[in-house]
Amino acid sequence: MSSSTTLKQAAEPTAAQWRVITAALKLFAEHGIGGTSLRMIASELGVTVAAVYHQYHTKDEIIFAAVETQLRRLGEVVDYAETEPTPTRARNALIDRVVELTMGVGRSMSAVLNDPAVTGSFSHHAGYRDLLRRIRVLLLGDDSTKEARVRVATLLAALNGTATHPLVAHLDDDTMRSELLNIARQLLPRNH
Q1: CB 43 within 8 A of CB 31
Q2: Residue of 49 and 4 predicted with greater confidence
Q3: 108-146 pLDDT, tens per residue?
Q4: How far apart are CA 130 and CA 74, in angstroms?
Q5: What does the alpha-carbon distance between residue 58 and residue 55 come to, in Å, rounded to a whole number?
Q6: What is the DSSP string of the chain?
Q7: Which of 43, 144, 163, 179 is most buried, by CB atoms within 10 Å?
Q8: Segment 14-30 mean pLDDT
Q9: Is the pLDDT of residue 23 over 80?
Q10: Cα separation, 13 vs 64, whole angstroms
Q11: Which residues make Cβ contacts (< 8 Å) with residue 128, sequence separation at least 6?
């Protein structure tokens, strides 16, 4: 999967493309990326494979569009947090909105973002690396201690991984949101 496109260059998906992405995300969460085919996506939508091809020619294009959309939303969250007047308010705004991104479709998106094929591809993505740097600054500030870095890494892994974990699959978004915010506040470095 090529990830040379920057976050700003990729267009927001059309309504038809978003339906394909949403169906694919559901199937990716159930069967994994490797276990999902274009035929399965077409079946989930109740259309022909040709109709899916009309929107995206490969499964990689669907994955890339989904990830780009989520990264663009994450970029908007980081942009917003960076406008807050104090480091504490910026950090809280970031956490609140990142938790919000993990709700609804974000639950399925977390399964895609945690897939090794995706993380490997996007680790070289300039926009993704820049977002990680900006998030690190918002969450850590000047604190580069081992404890702070471990807490932030644990927090980010928890936010991404918890949303799709089978133990909480039955929980509604309000409950998940409340619990994730509570855990996030406990995991954040103490000296910020």
Answers
A1: no
A2: 49
A3: 666 676 677 677 777 777 888 888 889 989 998 888 889
A4: 11
A5: 9
A6: ----S-TTTSPPPPHHHHHHHHHHHHHHHHH-STT--HHHHHHHHTS-HHHHHHH-SSHHHHHHHHHHHHHHHHHHHHHHHHTSSSHHHHHHHHHHHHHHHTSTHHHHHHHHHTSHHHHHHHTT-HHHHHHHHHHHHHHHTT---HHHHHHHHHHHHHHHHHTT-GGGTTS-HHHHHHHHHHHHHHHS-TT-
A7: 163
A8: 89
A9: yes
A10: 11
A11: 3, 7, 71, 122
Q: Identify which of 50, 52, 82 has the alpha carbon closest to the alpha carbon of residue 65.
A: 52
At 175 the pLDDT is 92
Q: pLDDT per residue over 50-91, tens digit each?
A: 999 999 999 889 988 888 887 888 899 999 999 999 999 999
Here the contacts of 50-53 (C-beta below 8 Å, separation 24 or greater) are 52/20
Predicted local confidence at residue 76, as pLDDT: 93
Mean pLDDT of the chain: 83
Rounded alpha-carbon distances, angstroms, from residue 172 to 110, 111, 177, 188: 16, 17, 9, 24
Tokens of 74: 């994450």
Structure confidence at residue 9 (pLDDT): 52
Can you say whether the dihedral through the CA atoms of 76, 77, 78, 79 is positive or negative?
Answer: positive
Residues near 72 by beta carbon (within 8 Å), at least 6 away in sequence: 7, 8, 10, 12
Distances in whole angstroms, Cα of residue 68 to Cα of each of 8, 19, 75, 92, 159: 9, 15, 10, 24, 19
